[in-house]
Amino acid sequence: MIEAQNLPPLTLALFVLAIAFLYASVGFGGASGYLAAMSLFTISPEVMASTALALNILVSAIALVAYYRARHFVPELLWPFLITSVPAAFIGGYLQVQADVYFALLYITLTYIAIRMLFFKENPSAALSLTRAAALVSGAVIGLLSGILGIGGGIFLSPLIVITGWGTSKQAAASAAAFILVNSLSGVLGRVVGNNMELGLLGLSLLPVGFLGALGGSQLGARYLSGSNLRRLLGVILLIAVARYWLSLLQ
């Protein structure tokens, strides 16, 4: 581990800037990326999770505004998932869970999703119908995982919408941004109630950097990238998010 106080603040700030730019382009808040970057430094888990959630709120809000203005937001691809995800994210943020098997299953799932997003094309004729039951169950599972891990949940919701054919890549990105924003706020509330919220000076100093990265990335994704390129970029970002886990197994 590298002592954060012995390095120029610019080092971590550049990581956050790049992560916010890339993740905002696909409607994500970037929590998994921030956590990976902060893990290179000596930072307490409480500060890491709290900072990731704060950045998530800021970056996802900016991404949502950009995709909404570009007319990609479809309310029906958001609210059914939120009904169960919000209370589940609160519970997850309150709990403190450590389980190697859990993380192994998590990263195996994310790796599968990333490969599918990269190498399989969207097939509208094979789209599944979005039922209320499917949305409620999916929202509960995603919300619980989001609260436990300190992320917004869009990394699960967006690929789910695309793979099932419930919406286009850009509609999925817009829904993910809104989903991440609401669940991150719920996760923060859970951490505050559970006395797990510790932002500190580090987190506050990274917020302006995340803001700048999100501005550029959200405009790129909402207005300039095609749907297929957005889907491939999402797959690449998912692979980046899981790469550190798989590399750690080789050490």
What is the strand and helix layout of this fold?
Elements: H1 9-25, H2 31-38, H3 45-69, H4 79-94, H5 100-119, H6 132-149, H7 154-164, H8 169-193, H9 200-224, H10 227-250
Features:
251 residues, 75% helix, mainly alpha, 10 helices, single chain
How much of the residues is beta strand, in percent? under 5%
Distance between the termini: 14 Å
Helix content: over 70%
Summarize model confidence as the mean pLDDT. 80
From N to C, what is the helix and strand string? HHHHHHHHHH
- How large is the count of helical segments? 10
Biggest sheet: strands, sense, closure?
none
Structural class: mainly alpha
The stretches of 5 or more residues where confidence is low (pLDDT under 50) are none
How many whole angstroms does the radius of gyration measure? 17 Å
Rough shape?
globular
SS elements, strand count = 0
The overall number of domains is 1
Task: Give the gist of this structure.
Helices cover 75% and strands 0% of the residues.
Describe the overall structure.
- With 251 residues, the chain is mainly alpha-helical.
- Helices cover 75% and strands 0% of the residues.
- The chain has helices at 9-25, 31-38, 45-69, 79-94, 100-119, 132-149, 154-164, 169-193, 200-224, 227-250.
- Helix 6 packs across helix 8.
- It is globular and about 45 Å long.
- The mean pLDDT is 80.
